[in-house]
């Protein structure tokens, strides 16, 4: 009886958590189908309206949505691939290899995680200006091609999941560093890489401040910067802005569903092998 009550409470808590998590996305979709006047109405309307096509059409009329979408997709994909490569390489090295200054380098790496990202905006802009990268995608991709969190995350995962005996066996078979990394470590690190890839992609996709500072050509605007231009100086059509926001969120929801399924399957496969 006690076990049954515990199960009921557990499922009740999970259902409440699910509703709380999903409701903001549902409310976003509802407001995207309403007019601005209906959004401000009281009591609020909790069901879908009929203005979605009209709102989306105005979004396409006011900004180059598909151009900004492709720009954002390009930047996010390139950033994610570079982060996955360099962070996994560094994390694997910190976890399984000994070299001079390893401890202090890792401490320095952790220290960089404590500095607010906003502090680096001005120095980063000056560096990009010196390189002549202001207004280019290189300024969005190259500075973020490795980050402290990703290295720390992969290091912690690799330290527990990659057996040292397996690496020793690879060395006996004549494997060098990169072959150990690619053929031994990467297959084991897939769950960690799935999470890091999704985390990096979402962060790059939603990045607003740095692209706003560094980009000066409307043809290269990312989605978040382009959507911000929908805000009027005196009057803002919030129904149109919310419809554009919904269109920008949909790819992230699809990515999350795909990556979460892959993440769970990778963990299950690792559990079966072990």
UniProtKB/TrEMBL annotation:
InterPro entries: MetI-like, MetI-like_sf
Gene3D superfamilies with a match to the protein in the record: MetI-like
Primary location: membrane
GO biological process: transmembrane transport
ABC transmembrane type-1 domain location: 69-259
Any one Gene Ontology cellular component term annotated for this protein: plasma membrane
Keyword field: Cell membrane, Membrane, Transmembrane, Transmembrane helix, Transport
Pfam families xref list: BPD_transp_1
Recorded topology in the membrane: Multi-pass membrane protein
Keyword set includes Membrane: yes
CDD domains on file: TM_PBP2
Superkingdom of origin organism: Bacteria
PANTHER family: ABC TRANSPORTER PERMEASE PROTEIN MG189-RELATED, ABC TRANSPORTER PERMEASE PROTEIN MG189-RELATED-RELATED
Family: Belongs to the binding-protein-dependent transport system permease family.
Protein name as annotated: Cellobiose transport system permease protein
């Amino acid at each position: 009886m006690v076990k049954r009550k515990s199960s009921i409470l557990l499922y009740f808590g999970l259902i409440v958590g699910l509703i709380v998590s999903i409701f903001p996305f549902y409310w976003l979709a509802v407001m995207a189908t309403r007019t601005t006047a209906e959004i401000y109405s009281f009591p609020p309307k909790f069901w879908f309206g009929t203005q979605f096509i009209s709102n989306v059409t105005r979004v396409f009329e006011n900004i180059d949505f598909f151009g900004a979408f492709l720009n954002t997709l390009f930047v996010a994909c390139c950033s994610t691939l570079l982060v996955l490569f360099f962070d996994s390489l560094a994390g694997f090295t910190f976890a399984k290899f000994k070299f001079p200054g390893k401890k202090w380098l890792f401490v320095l790496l952790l220290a960089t995680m404590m500095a607010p990202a906003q502090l680096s905006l001005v120095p980063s802009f000056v560096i990009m200006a010196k390189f002549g990268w202001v207004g280019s995608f290189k300024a969005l991709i190259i500075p973020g091609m490795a980050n402290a969190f990703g290295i720390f995350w992969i290091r912690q995962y690799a330290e527990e999941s990659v057996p040292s005996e397996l690496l020793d066996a690879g060395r006996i078979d004549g494997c060098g560093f990169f072959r150990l990394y690619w053929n031994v470590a990467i297959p084991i690190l897939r769950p960690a890489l799935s999470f890091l890839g999704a985390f990096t992609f979402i962060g790059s996709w939603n990045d607003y401040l740095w692209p706003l500072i560094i980009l000066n050509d409307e043809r290269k605007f990312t989605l978040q910067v382009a959507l911000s231009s929908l805000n009027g100086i005196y009057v803002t059509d919030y129904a149109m802005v919310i419809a554009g926001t919904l269109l920008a969120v949909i790819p992230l929801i699809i990515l999350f569903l795909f990556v979460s399924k892959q993440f769970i399957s990778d963990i299950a496969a690792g559990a079966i092998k072990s």
